[in-house]
Every structure is written in C-alpha cells, then in structure tokens.
Write a structure and sequence with these properties.
Chain A: Belongs to the flagella basal body rod proteins family. The structure holds 2 protein chains of 2 kinds. Chain A is of the alpha+beta class. Chain A contains 3 helices and 4 strands, in the order αβαβββα. Chain A has 2 domains: 85 residues, no CATH class; 38 residues, no CATH class. Chain B contains 5 helices and 2 strands; from the N terminus they run ααβααβα. Chain B has a two-stranded antiparallel ribbon with strand order 1-2. Classes of the chains: A alpha+beta, B mainly alpha.
C-alpha cells in the first residue's frame, strides 16, 4: 500500500536529518577544541545523503508501479578537507615547539545555517507523516 | 438488478489509488530535498487515470514483448513507466537537486485534499448502496 510507504520515506528523511543535526552539534561543540598537531585536530563532519534505492520486491511488484525511490539513505559521514585554522599562541598549554596551536576547520556560521535547514526539513517531513496518517485513518473509516 | 461496485464507485476508485501513489512520489521528493543530484519526479495524474480507465474498458494497456521465458514483464509497470516524469526546476541549484520544497508541499497538500474528496464520494456511494439494501 502506497500510503504506508510514506511512513518509511518520511521516517528515513527524519532519521537522516537527525544525523545531520547530530554532526552539526558535534561540530559546534568541538569548534574550539585546539590541539598541538594537525593530525589530532578535530575536523568538521558532514553526512552524505543519497537516494535510497527501492528494494527488489518493490521493483518487481508490478502493482507498486511507481517506485521513484524509498526515501533518503545516509551514505556516510565525511570529514571536511578545508584547511585548519592555525594560530600563534605560544602561551597556550597545547602549543607546539614553534608556539602554534591548531583550531578545527568548523565554520560556525555554516553550521548554524545547516542546523536551521536540518530542523526545517525535519518539521516538513513530520508534517508529511501527519498528513499521511490522516489519509490512512480516513481510509479505515470507509463505509462507516 | 444486481449491484455493480465498479459502476457505483466509478472513477473515484481509480482516483483514490492514484492519489495515494502520487502522495508517495511527492513524499519521496520532499524526503530527498537535501540529497545532491536528486531529481524531483511526479506523475501526470490525468493521463495515468485515462490509461487505467482505458485498461478497464478492455483496451489492452501497453505491454512489453517477452522474447525469452525468463524475461520479466517490466521493471516498472508499463502503464505508469512513461508517466513518472521529471520536473523542470524553476531555479536550478548548485548541487543538482531539483526539489522545490514549498511547491512540493503545495502539491502534496492539494493531492491529500483530492484524496479526501474521492474518499468522500466513495463513502457516500457506499452509504447510498447500504440504504438501498436496507430500504430505509
């Protein structure tokens, strides 16, 4: 039943947006986690979204007919390759022998925009689910 | 006189099925609003409904030829395959995504209302049939 699929689709989107919110939270929390070496420094993390392919049964089930995809799938989480921010702070306890500390490549403004976008998308998908729920509930009252 | 459900329910039985399929397609568009390179899709409601009705009136729907016994009829149902169209974006985005969430939301809501309308018609038909049977 197509309407029941909407719950999976909107659910997958909500879960993907939650992952996006989680990575944003992690990036924001670590925005000032300094370290003395480039390798140890925290790098901004971003989830990679992709269209979730329909399952084999859905594709071969002729009744399903229209299968554009089945929601969102998080393909993975990648670390940003943007350059780290290096600051000359010889008095810093974590400064290296030359007096430099490395700050994460987290762009707080970008993260805020990402957070708002993720939260809006989450709300919209919750709304989609709500409407689908009303449609299913309606279908159940047929003949009453 | 026998009661024919097909005749009693008319177009709305097909319409309600199509409405729920279209809701799925649009929900998938909105779910993938942040997916790079995702292309928004939709069905041409009118032509699919005409196709379904044509099939009911014994006009054979488009069918693939099986040249081998192991061939499947179709990966996507031939009635609808041509109808699942790609949208033309009003404003192309950098990541290749063609979903306009506001527009999709409007279509989804409109589609849900169409579903309710068709549902109400069917419901009333059933109520009519049931009162005809009971005679009150």
């Amino acid at each position: 039943m197509s309407l029941a699929n909407i719950f999976n689709i909107a659910g997958s989107a909500m879960s993907a947006q939650t992952i996006r919110l989680n990575t944003t939270a992690s990036n924001m929390a670590n925005a000032d986690s300094v370290s003395s070496s480039v390798g140890e420094t925290y790098r901004a993390r971003k989830p990679v979204f992709e269209l979730q392919a329909p399952s084999l049964e859905q594709v071969t089930d002729t009744d399903t007919g229209l299968v554009p995809g089945q929601g969102v799938h998080v393909a993975g989480i990648v670390e940003s390759q943007a350059p780290l921010r290096t600051a000359y702070e010889p008095s810093h306890p974590l400064a290296d022998e030359k007096g430099y500390v490395h700050y994460p490549n987290v762009n707080v403004v970008e993260e805020m925009a990402d957070m708002i976008s993720a939260s809006r998308s989450f709300q919209i998908n919750a709304e989609i689910m709500n409407t689908a729920k009303q449609m299913v509930q309606r279908a159940l009252t047929l003949g009453q | 006189m026998a009661i024919s459900f097909d005749k009693a329910l008319g177009i709305h039985e097909d319409a309600i099925g199509l409405r729920s399929k279209r809701a799925e397609v649009i929900a998938n568009n909105i779910a993938n609003a942040d997916t790079p390179n995702f292309q928004a899709r939709d069905i041409d409601f009118k032509s699919v409904l005409q196709g379904v009705q044509g099939a009911q009136q014994n006009q054979a729907p488009l069918k693939m030829v099986n040249t081998n016994a192991t061939h499947q009829d179709a990966v996507i149902h031939p009635d609808y395959a041509a109808e699942l169209l790609f949208r033309t974006p009003t404003q192309p985005s950098v990541d290749g995504n063609t979903v306009d969430v506001q527009e999709e939301m409007a279509r989804y809501t409109e589609n849900a209302l169409g579903y309710q309308a068709s549902f109400d018609f069917i419901n009333r038909k059933f109520k009519g049939l049931s009162s005809a049977i009971k005679g009150n």
